[in-house]
Structure formats: C-alpha cells, structure tokens
Amino acid sequence: MNEIRFRLEISAQEYLRYYQGEVDSVLVTIIGGKTIQFPASALQKHVDQSGVNGSFRIIFDNNNKMVSMERISN
Questions:
Q1: Which is it for the CA torsion 9, 25, 14, 32, positive or negative?
Q2: How many CB atoms lie within 10 A of CB 17?
Q3: Which of 6, 11, 24, 46 could hold 51 in an S-S bridge, CB 3.0 to 4.6 Å?
Q4: Are 72 and 53 in contact (CB under 8 A)?
Q5: Rg of the Cα trace of the chain?
Q6: What's the gap between Cα 55 and its chain centre?
C-alpha cells in the first residue's frame, strides 16, 4: 500500500462549495510538487466550524484506489 501526506486549509465558507456540490473533487499538491485528486466527500468527517484544517494522510491500495483518509495533526 502507498500513502501520501499533505496539509489542507479550507475555510468554512470555501467548504460550502464542496458541500453544495459545486465542486466534487479536491486537488492538492504534495511534497515534491506532485498533485493528487480525490473525492470531496472524503472531507466530510473532517469538517468543523472553521472548515477543514490540518495535516492528513491518504492510504491507497496497490491499484491506487483510496482506502482511507485520516487527520494526523491539526
């Protein structure tokens, strides 16, 4: 399995676009300049009053399908 780590800072106002379905995926740049895209729905359990903020880890299976996403720090 592979994993990537990244930091997100999405304000509550900006997250509304994801929640309302205006945006269906998130594009992040990871260390080394690579970008990855994942479904915005993966953020739902990480939203609080300020939006989505913190460092995260996504684990992928051997076919590069997302297995899980977890917050590793605020």
A1: positive
A2: 13
A3: 11
A4: no
A5: 12
A6: 9
Read off the pTM: 0.85
| Contact (CB, 8 A) for 25 and 62 | no
* Number of residues in the chain: 74
Per-residue pLDDT, 21: 87
- Give tens-digit pLDDT for 20-52: 989 999 999 987 889 999 999 999 999 999 999
Domain locations in the chain as residue ranges: 2-73
Q: Which CATH class is domain 2-73?
A: mainly beta
Report the distance separating Cα 48 and Cα 67, nearest Å. 23
Query: Percent of the chain at pLDDT above 70?
Result: 100
Q: What is the mean pLDDT of residues 2-28?
A: 92
Helix residue ranges per DSSP H, the chain: 12-19
